[in-house]
Amino acid sequence: MTKIDLVLPERRAFMGKAGALTLSATAVALLAGRPALAQGSMARDADLKILNTALGLEHQAIAAYQVGAESGLLSKPVLGVAVKFQSDHKEHASVLASTIKKLGGSPVEAMKPADYKFPTDQLHSEKDVLKFAASLERAAASAYLGAVPAFGNSDLAKAAASILGNETMHWALLLNALGEPADPVSFIS
Fold this sequence. Notes:
The protein has about 190 residues and is mostly helical.
């Protein structure tokens, strides 16, 4: 949240000892009788929450592909694709974290792969790993689909739509690798 230091000249001595009073940009706008400005700040805060949720999903995907890569169940060509998809998710995460920082937020941190509680006990073959990855990619596409119209900033919505396209391609390619139709639904939900 953007902070604005309010230090009135006649209060400098007091503030020097007590520390600077900081209010959120939203609070300042509301106090100043500027609800429209406050609304913009609230939209930015909502956008930051959406971005952090997306970043959390990207961290999860990175960890999932790491688990798949380390499982020993993937053939060399499939492992290469998994590493490429993981690289895409790392790039998404980097851009999301950078954007969050530029907007004055704090990016969520990645958890350890074990903390995601992936169903590793159900991964016994390459096909199992591919199905697991496909389910995560479908969920990511669905999450981005929900995020696009929720953004207050149209540039953020456009960027999320771009990532949505990438997640959807991942899902389709994984389905194809499983021998399933690459377009199993007419609409993602």
